[in-house]
Specification:
Chain B: The chain crosses the membrane at residues 12-31, 87-120, 126-154, 258-283. Chain B: It comes from Mesorhizobium escarrei. Chain B: Belongs to the binding-protein-dependent transport system permease family. The complex is a heterodimer of chains A (263) and B (292). Chain A is α/β, with parallel strands linked by helices and 263 residues long. Chain A has a domain at 9-84 and 160-259: P-loop containing nucleotide triphosphate hydrolases (Rossmann fold), CATH 3.40.50.300. In chain A, 36% of the residues lie in helices and 24% in strands. Chain A is built from eight helices and nine strands. Chain A has helices at residues 51-58, 76-81, 100-110, 115-128, 144-156, 174-191, 202-208, 242-259, and strands at 9-20, 23-35, 40-44, 66-71, 85-88, 162-166, 194-199, 211-216, 221-227. In chain A, the strands form two sheets. Chain A has a six-stranded mixed sheet with strand order 5-6-7-3-8-9, with helices on both faces. Chain A has a three-stranded antiparallel sheet with strand order 2-1-4, with helices on one face. The N and C termini of chain A lie far apart (52 Å). Chain B is an all-alpha fold and 292 residues long. Chain B folds into two domains: 2-62; 87-286, Orthogonal Bundle (MetI-like fold), CATH 1.10.3720.10. Chain B has helices spanning 2-41, 47-54, 65-77, 87-118, 120-133, 138-151, 157-180, 185-193, 198-233, 242-251, 255-286. In chain B, helix 4 runs antiparallel to helix 5 (120-133) and helix 9 (198-233) packs antiparallel against helix 11 (255-286). Chain B is elongated and about 90 Å long. The two termini of chain B are 16 Å apart. Classes of the chains: A alpha/beta (263), B mainly alpha (292). The interface between A and B is medium-sized, with 25 and 21 residues.
Chain lengths: 263, 292
């Protein structure tokens, strides 16, 4: 036993340049980052700051053009091949021709689990996101918030230790969003997963995270890293406390600093 | 019920307009020949009598609607279905090669689309040929197909069906290429995060996503198949089928027969498109489609 668990995500001098018809665009530049097991890390910043790109690099949906990155101590590609993470997209991205149950079963089918094992996991994960009773519904029969919960269930179904979430609640209204934030925290506490969460909402980032990575655009880079001092148990009204507001103010300052040279 | 009436009234008004115009043209077009007949017979009918006669010729230039309707009714319902003159019998002959050709064409179209979507070389090499194939007039190709196949001993249903295939594979191929490429980027990314194999992505994502495109293109293809089957009957000297009826009618100037064969062809086409449409709706329902 080594005592300290290895980093789940570890990046150094990471850079990614897209070649577009308007010339090269630096989406990520010189990103250093270490995420430990069980952390809840939020990436926040204005659009174009590379937060989604960074998440996609971790997921091996994009290849970095410089620097190095490892996920669970191996390359992102190897991690993806060993199904190390569940990914939740901004849109629920449920397959419309599958029922909720069959949507959650999709990764399990692909990974070749037995029917009985599939059924057990579908039941467990749908319970976890409070969607029991909706197994036989088609996605269009569910509200936006329920669809997103189903897509989280799908990402949890195969028990990856890392959950990558790209603005999962961005398209939902404030009330549903609060509710889902609460549920997500509860879920994180129960499952002890590592979560990387992209958002552009300051309250959401502060409420959820153990650490907030503030990013700024052109080129996309990390401009501040804020450790949260909030306790692990967080009722919704923690957002009224001075401690919460102080962290939110720091995040806001970080965002403003990143922007200052532009306008 | 109201929406049904909303749809019915416009359709019926147009139909009524067409029938009226048809009668007018029947009188105008048949008048010269009738005048000729009357002059030879030394008759001088009044206007009403004259108009009546233009709509009762045995071989009119343009038969009146009721002449076609009577002929269609007699040849559809009053004859034994085994009779060579029965429109049911002739429609069945054409329908059987239509269906066979449609099945071949759909299978071929899907096969080509799968190839084009998965092999970049095929995408570039095959597509121009597929488009070129449809610019060749089918009337020019049909006799050659029949003759060449007869030379190697293939006769009967297959050559006719192949002409239907030639016309029907195209819409299916084009529609399915679009359908197999229709999945959204996030749906494809999702498969990538699961490290799904290309065949898993194909069966679990591309195929279900392409189903609505398949049925839309099958509607076009089945109508094209029918045209192919009719055209295929023209150069073969076929003794039965809607195409054979058309040809015989033209040969003996039986214009009424030609028109009722045309009506039979349209009825078959409408039924085929309807059947494909209903099948499409059933499949959509089974795949959790949202009721419109």
């Amino acid at each position: 036993m080594t005592g300290q668990s290895p980093a789940v995500v570890s990046a150094s001098k990471l850079g990614l340049t897209f070649q577009t018809s308007d010339g090269p665009v630096q989406a990520l530049s010189n990103v250093d980052l270490t995420i430990g097991k069980g952390e809840f890390v939020s990436f926040i910043g204005p659009s174009g700051c590379g937060k989604t790109t960074l998440l996609r690099v971790i997921a091996d949906l994009e290849k970095p053009t410089s620097g190095s990155i490892s996920v669970n101590g191996i390359t992102p590609e190897q991690a993806r091949q060993s199904r190390a993470y569940g990914y939740v997209f901004q849109a629920a991205a449920l397959y419309p021709w599958r029922t909720i149950e069959r949507n959650v079963a999709l990764p399990l089918e692909i990974m070749g689990l037995s029917k009985t094992e599939q059924a057990a996991r579908i039941k467990r994960t749908l319970d976890l996101v409070n969607l029991s009773g909706f197994e036989q519904k088609y996605p269009w029969q569910l509200s936006g918030g329920m669809q997103q919960r189903a897509s989280i269930a799908r990402a949890l179904a195969f028990d990856a230790d890392l959950l990558l979430m790209d603005e999962p609640f961005g398209a939902l209204d404030e009330i549903v969003r609060d509710h889902l934030n609460e549920q997500l925290l509860e879920l994180w506490e129960r499952t002890n997963k590592t979560i990387c969460f992209v958002t552009h909402s300051i309250p959401e980032a502060v409420y959820l995270s153990t650490r907030i990575i503030v990013m700024s655009p052109r080129p996309g880079r990390v401009s501040d890293v804020i450790e949260s001092t909030l306790p692990k148990k967080r009722p919704l009204d923690i957002r009224e406390t001075p401690e919460f507001l102080a962290i939110a103010a720091r995040v806001r300052d970080g965002l403003r600093a990143g922007h200052s040279y532009e306008d | 019920m109201d929406s049904f009436r909303d749809k019915l009234i416009p359709v019926i008004s147009i139909l009524a307009g067409v029938v009226v115009a048809w009668y007018v043209f029947a009188v105008i077009l048949n008048a010269p020949f009738q005048r000729d007949l009357d002059r030879r017979a030394g008759e001088t009918p009044d206007v009403v009598e004259f108009i009546g006669k233009t709509m009762a010729q045995p071989k009119p230039t343009l038969p009146a609607p009721h002449q076609v309707a009577v002929n269609f009714f007699e040849n559809t319902f009053l004859r034994k279905v085994t009779s060579n003159r029965s429109l049911v019998y002739n429609a069945w002959v054409t329908l059987s090669s239509t269906l066979l050709g449609f099945a071949f064409g759909t299978a071929l179209g899907i096969l080509i689309a799968v190839g084009i979507v998965h092999v970049a070389t095929l995408d570039r090499s095959l597509m121009p040929w597929i488009i070129a194939s449809q610019t060749i007039p089918i009337l020019a190709v049909a006799p050659m197909i029949i003759v060449v196949l007869a030379a190697i001993g293939v006769t009967g249903l297959i050559p006719k069906a192949l002409i239907s295939t030639y016309l029907s594979f195209f819409p299916v191929a084009v529609g399915m290429v679009k359908g197999l490429r229709s999945p959204e980027l996030t749906h494809l990314d999702l498969m990538h995060t699961y490290n799904a194999s290309p065949s898993q992505t194909f069966w679990k994502l591309r195929v279900p996503a392409s189903v609505p495109f398949l049925f839309t293109s099958m509607k076009v293809a089945v109508a094209a198949s029918l045209v192919g089957a009719i055209v295929g009957e023209l150069p073969t000297g076929a003794v039965a089928g809607i195409g054979a009826k058309l040809l015989a009618g033209a040969y003996y100037s039986q214009t009424i027969d030609i028109w009722s064969a045309l009506v039979a062809g349209s009825v078959v086409a409408a039924l085929l498109v309807m059947v494909v449409g209903i099948a499409g709706r059933l499949v959509d329902r089974a795949m959790g489609g949202r009721p419109a």
